[in-house]
Amino acid sequence: MTSAFSVSAPGSSANLGAGFDVLGLAVDLRAEVGLGDAPQGAQPIDKHHPAAIAYERVGGSQQLWSRSRLPMGRGLGYSGAARAAGAMLAVVEREHSPAVATEPAAREEVFAVVAELEGHPDNAGASVYGGLIAASADRVAQLPIVHDWVLLVWIPDSTTSTDKSRTQLDAVVQRVDAVANLAAIAHFVAGVSAGDESLVRAGVNDRLHQTQRLAGVPGSANAL
Fold this sequence. Notes:
By secondary structure, the chain is an alpha+beta fold. It folds into two domains: 6-143, Ribosomal Protein S5, domain 2 (2-Layer Sandwich), CATH 3.30.230; 162-223, no CATH class. It is built from nine helices and six strands. Strand 1 and strand 2 form a beta hairpin. The termini are far apart.
């Protein structure tokens, strides 16, 4: 393979419905990271960039460039996508084969790195595996989507900090809320798999984090 090449990864919408830190969905907007001469629209990135950090974690050491259609800090998983692309770029470079990117072992390696750096396996899993996923810290399950759903995305005018928004969450949750969320997750997954809109609607009723986090994003409650 040549010394100039790139890898891209999709952004994601995570915390789907009641699937807080579990359910993630890849979106058709990607972050691209590469080596060699930067193409039109790309910019060199420094060692502090999420993609560069993931790239170096897997053993890469060259100067990178990046370009992306994903807005930063707007809830579409930019950092997860950039890290997934950077980590996979290092794997492809190490193995001297672009085909390695489709191998299960490579994806498992990249997911482990991205999930650790992100701290959120749902974003990491969606960017590494694509489609709809359910993730834990060390495992990703790809879930079937049989209906031709249309994803409508609301992008806020202001940026948000995931870490800051999580400080607003309750440290302890009530059992009744936990049980309600478990039921909603089951409804959501079943609804998406079966193409049942009523189940999907039932599955977006969260009782663990949405109320607290919406307060920090102007306009988000109205968007929902």
